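Q: what sequence does this backbone want?
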């Protein structure tokens, strides 16, 4: 009988064992990946999450019912990281709740209107500086289209310097906080002060946000608890409140606000969602103007509302619902070929008033509709968990 040397048989055994481990690991990874891409089962309920689901989610996550809400502060725990952590499905869930619960509750009166801060709110800790330039170049085509198609009396042109109120609101002074105590100005971070830089163009019914570093973002390294953080920032600190407050100082008709734009988006989560959408287009790459637009009833529209750069628009619509009334909401996204790498992403929200009689054409027609996303297989519990704010002590607010 021919005997195999012991060292050869042992070596063959090691090779077989190693191959089996590799195969098992590969199969496990492949199975996990494919499982995440399975479409939603036909009997899955895609409807907005109801109050009972919110209660279940609260119990699952160990939080109280009164903590289950979608405030800017709580949402920042979920989707406000500097490296992308926001999935398309989580963004859809968040945007769906913002639209169907927060905004709709405001429209039917079951949600209290937002606080009005006025000039006193601006003076409490903020310095108002004018921007000595025209609107961002990346929005010129959008404003030409709005002037030509939506407001024909304006014509196909961009706003003049006189028609534009560029404002940079800088948090550089001591202020009286929400507890009535004097508080020092928020310190520099990366050689920047907390600020909101926006262009207010009443004739075009538009606000364009070009750069922002929120007070809470500037303090995120301190890892303050929410209650302590609120006392460390001025009462006027959310971008939605800042934009609405300044808007009311530049126009006698603030309820005419229709367009909210975001220029040079750098937030990784927002850009990631935009890339997910662009990847389903004809070129699989970012699209230049006119880009592509989506109604708020679509998954893509809800996903964009659920991004960090969609929150301010959502809360203007919710907090000012009694002023703005019911609107037909859509969003357009595009990118620029001429901007520095990673800075050419833009978003324009359109809050169109209800139609009454013949209406002028809207912005240029979108590119062909993109295929609808096939959501990953998610149970009701997973959907609730994805859309529920995680209550922690580390607040990481928005930097756009």
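A:
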């Amino acid at each position: 009988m021919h005997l195999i040397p012991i060292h050869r048989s042992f070596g063959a055994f090691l090779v077989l064992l190693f191959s089996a481990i590799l195969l098992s690991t590969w199969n496990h990874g492949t199975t996990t990946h494919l499982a995440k891409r399975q479409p939603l089962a036909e009997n899955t309920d895609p409807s907005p999450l109801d109050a009972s689901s919110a209660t279940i989610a609260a119990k699952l996550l160990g939080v109280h019912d009164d903590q289950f809400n979608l405030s800017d502060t709580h949402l920042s725990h979920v989707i406000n990281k500097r490296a992308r952590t926001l999935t398309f499905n989580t963004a859809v869930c968040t945007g769906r709740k913002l639209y169907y619960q927060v905004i709709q509750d405001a429209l039917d009166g079951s949600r209290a209107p937002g606080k009005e801060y006025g000039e006193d709110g601006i003076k409490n800790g903020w310095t108002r500086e004018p921007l000595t330039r025209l609107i961002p170049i990346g929005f010129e085509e959008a404003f030409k289209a709005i002037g030509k198609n939506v407001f024909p009396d304006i014509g196909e042109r961009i706003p003049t310097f006189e028609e534009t109120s560029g404002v940079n609101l800088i948090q550089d002074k001591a202020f009286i906080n929400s507890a009535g105590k004097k508080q020092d100005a928020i310190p520099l971070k990366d050689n920047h002060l907390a600020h909101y830089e926006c262009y207010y163009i009443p004739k075009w019914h538009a606000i364009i946000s070009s750069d922002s570093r929120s007070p809470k973002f500037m303090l995120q390294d301190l890892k303050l608890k929410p209650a302590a953080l609120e006392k460390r920032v001025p009462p006027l600190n959310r971008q939605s409140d800042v934009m609405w407050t300044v808007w009311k100082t530049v126009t006698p008709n603030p309820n005419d606000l229709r367009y909210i734009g975001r220029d040079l988006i750098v937030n990784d989560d927002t850009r990631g969602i935009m890339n997910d959408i662009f990847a389903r287009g004809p070129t699989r790459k970012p699209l230049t103007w006119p880009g592509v637009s989506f109604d708020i009833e679509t998954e893509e529209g809800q996903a964009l509302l659920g991004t960090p750069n969609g929150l301010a628009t959502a809360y203007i619509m919710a907090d000012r619902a009694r002023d703005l009334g019911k609107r037909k909401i859509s969003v357009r996204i595009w990118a620029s070929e001429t901007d520095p790498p990673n800075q050419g992403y833009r978003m324009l929200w359109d809050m169109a008033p209800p139609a009454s009689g013949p209406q002028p054409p809207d912005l240029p027609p979108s590119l062909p509709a993109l295929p609808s996303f096939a959501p990953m297989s998610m149970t009701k519990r997973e959907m609730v968990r994805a859309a529920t704010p995680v209550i922690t002590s580390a607040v990481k607010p928005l930097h756009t």
